[in-house]
Design a protein that fits this description.
- The protein is α/β, with parallel strands linked by helices.
- It has a domain at about 25-135: Immunoglobulins (Immunoglobulin-like, Sandwich), CATH 2.60.40.10.
- Strands 10-13-16-19-20-21-22-23 form an eight-stranded parallel beta barrel, surrounded by six helices. A six-stranded antiparallel sheet has the order 24-25-26-31-28-29. Strands 3, 6, 7, 8 and 9 form a five-stranded antiparallel sheet that branches.
- The longest helix has 19 residues, at about 515-530.
- It starts with about 25 loop residues before the first helix and ends in an 18-residue tail after the last strand.
Length: about 675
């Protein structure tokens, strides 16, 4: 088996079977499917027995006839260190003196199934050797965290009434080393530039595409083999802890993409682990994913649920992650997902719903929120499955948030239209608000929309160069106008021309050009205003925070809406309480400027032009409303006052009501002073 450099056998003692990290309660909970921290006991853990240092090894292989651990410490000899079966638990374990950190190892499993023999990496391994090599490595997870302030305060950052503007990114292709463009930056190397960039851009969270170990780099991490191991491509576990730590110290939350929906069939991984379909289903109608040619977890098996729930909890516990985005939830919920008639097996009631997967997701979310109530779980769920982001105790799946895939598809399809035809597709802009508060939504412009020939966000926009950039600014404007959390995949914020490719890095040189800098500045200022203005985020998931002004002007392809802040608590003051924060947003989706466009507003007084995507700083033509306008006592749109606005071509204009008249009406619409 030795595959990097053959290590000389170490001076280790014989395996001991009279000592264990696992207690009877661990076996019981694991076999029951309710153990949520098996990583504390399973796998390889350095320790000491009677003053002699070494390592505890344990692995679940209930159908094995014999199990041994092979590695650097015994010259990979099959018969050097056998593990001992612990009753009927299916777990094998031993303690080997003399094993130290960094040593490579695998489990050699001989099955009852016809003498089937296989070498497997540790399912609970904390790190491994560099791909394409596949052995696990003994590893400790010691680290001195410096993020106590963030951890104490993160509840307010992850709450549903907090601003969440998420930057989705792939660690390996965000930025490379300048002197060696082919070199992937390590977790430590990327920490400083990433923290600086996200802070400068006012992002509140970063979502990392799967960092869990994966043998095939081009899978982007979505074909996971190491459910407890950050990819060694970018550094050690401590290096990844350092990255999370630095992001927290910079005030940035960290969300991890996590994949419990399927796993690859690589020989060293989970598939056919002990000579039987252990983690997966035996029947391919249940256990094989036709889209990805991967294995599907058997969610009905108790020990598999303990494994997966423990993995989810692990990243929040040991790596201080602030939440998990759960990939491909729809593929878990439906037995007939991507299958034709006859290619799937109905549930016990004859339906297409995967009852075991539903139970698992509810258990996962309940376990996470019980242990880490200040985090979030986010579902990538692409159907109309009800109550995804509602608690399990009322019949929901228990997620905190759900991606609004319908908004993404409708909005991109609308924006791809030539503006002359958009009036025939106006409903794609407005349909979302018929269901907009049925879930706690995130609006995603994710990596999936800029790969496999779909082109970049900028590439989807119609028109000449100026119009394409204006349309892209409009797309971001309508996203931030909507009530929901926001997410943009890296590169979109600089107007990347080409679609994303994992082999290279983002085209940062585009920022040498004014239109690309303009897009970046627009996204930066949207993020800043979104976080600073209560009306733009506090009621993101509550209907009282949103109101259409006019959603029916399809002939002009204009929509206008109000975003409201929370109702001020009564103070009992004779002077009255402060009125709710209010922002009017008007979007013009045609290249025709609209002067004298009257829009009804609920209050008189001064309305400040908070943001205008057509400002010259963003690459626009510079049309606008002189920093703001006084509302006229002219009823319109059923409201007692109105504003007569200039709506620039292909623009988003945000107007914020001011409690007192602003004397300097000529203040810059691009100001960074949002309050």
């Amino acid at each position: 088996m030795p595959n990097e450099s053959t290590a000389a056998p170490q001076a280790v003692g014989p395996a001991r079977h009279d000592t264990s990290l696992l207690m009877e309660q661990d076996f019981h909970l694991f076999n029951e499917g309710t153990h949520s921290r098996m990583y504390e006991k399973m796998g390889a853990h350095l320790g000491e027995v009677e003053g002699e240092p070494g390592c505890y090894f344990s692995v679940w292989a209930p159908n094995a006839r014999e199990v041994s651990v092979i590695g650097d410490f015994n010259d990979w000899a099959p018969a050097a260190h056998y593990l001992h079966a612990r009753g009927l638990s299916g777990i094998w374990e031993c303690f080997i003196p003399g094993v130290t950190t960094g040593m490579r190892y695998k489990y050699l499993i001989v099955s009852h199934n016809g003498g089937f023999k296989t070498e497997k990496a540790d399912p609970y391994g904390f790190t491994c050797e560099h791909p394409p090599h596949t052995a696990s490595r003994v590893c400790e997870l010691d680290y001195k965290w410096q993020d106590a302030k963030w951890m104490a305060e993160r509840k307010q950052h992850n709450a549903l009434d907090a601003p969440m503007s998420i930057y989705e990114m792939h660690v390996g292709s965000w930025m490379h080393r300048k002197e060696d463009p082919k070199h992937l930056l390590s977790y430590r190397e990327i920490a400083a530039p990433l923290c600086e960039y996200l802070s400068k851009m006012y992002y509140t969270h970063v979502e990392l595409m799967p960092v869990m170990e994966h043998p095939y780099y081009a899978s982007w991490g979505y074909q996971t083999t190491g459910y407890f191991a950050p990819s060694i491509r970018y550094g050690t576990p401590q290096d990844f802890m350092y990255l999370v730590d630095q992001l927290h110290q910079a005030g940035i939350g960290v969300l991890l993409d996590w994949v419990p929906s399927h796993f690859p069939n690589d020989g060293h991984g989970l598939t056919y682990f002990d000579g039987t379909a252990l983690y997966e289903h035996e029947d391919p109608r249940l256990g094989f994913h036709p889209d990805w040619k991967t294995c599907i977890f058997n969610y009905g098996r108790n020990e598999v649920r303990s494994f997966l729930v423990s993995s989810g909890i692990f990243w929040l516990d040991k790596y201080h992650a602030d939440g998990l985005r759960v990939d491909a939830v729809a593929s878990m919920l439906y037995l007939d997902y991507s299958r034709k008639a006859g290619e799937w097996i109905p549930n016990r009631y004859g339906g297409r719903e995967n009852i075991e997967a539903i139970d698992f997701l509810r258990q996962l979310n309940a376990s996470i929120y019980e242990s880490f109530p200040d985090t979030q779980t986010i579902a990538e769920e692409s159907t109309a499955w009800p109550m995804v982001s509602r608690p399990a105790y009322v019949g929901g799946l228990g997620f905190g948030l759900k991606w609004d895939m319908g908004w993404m598809h409708d909005t991109l399809k609308y924006m791809e239209q030539n503006p002359i035809y958009r009036r025939f597709h106006h409903n794609k802009l407005t349909f979302r608000m018929l269901y907009g508060f049925s879930e706690n939504f995130v609006l995603p412009l994710s990596h999936d929309e800029v790969v496999h020939g779909k082109g970049s966000l900028l590439g989807k926009m119609p028109g000449d160069e100026w119009q394409r950039f204006a349309n892209l600014r409009c797309l971001f404007g309508v996203m931030f106008a909507q009530p929901a959390k926001k997410m943009v995949f890296m590169g979109g914020e600089i107007g990347q021309y080409r679609e994303w490719a994992h082999e290279g890095e983002l085209d940062w040189n585009l920022l040498d050009f004014p239109l690309h800098r303009g897009i970046q500045s627009w996204v930066r200022d949207l993020n800043h205003a979104y976080a600073a203005v209560p009306a733009l985020h506090v009621l993101d998931v509550r209907p009282e925070g949103f109101e259409w002004v006019d959603c029916n002007d399809n002939e002009a392809s204009i929509i206008s809406l109000l975003r409201w802040g929370p109702q001020a608590e009564s103070t009992g003051s004779p002077a009255g309480d402060s009125p709710r924060d209010a922002v009017l947003v008007a979007l013009n989706f045609t290249p025709v400027p609209r002067s004298g466009y009257r829009i009804g507003v609920p209050r008189g007084g001064f309305w400040k032009e908070l943001l205008n995507s057509d400002a010259k700083d963003y690459g626009g033509s510079g049309m606008g409303n002189f920093g703001g306008l006084e509302a006229e006592a002219v009823e319109h749109h059923g409201r007692p006052y109105s504003l007569v606005l200039t709506l620039p071509p292909l623009s988003a204009v945000f107007m914020r009501w001011q409690p007192q008249a602003v004397s300097d009406a000529a203040s810059s619409p691009n100001t960074s002073e949002w309050v």
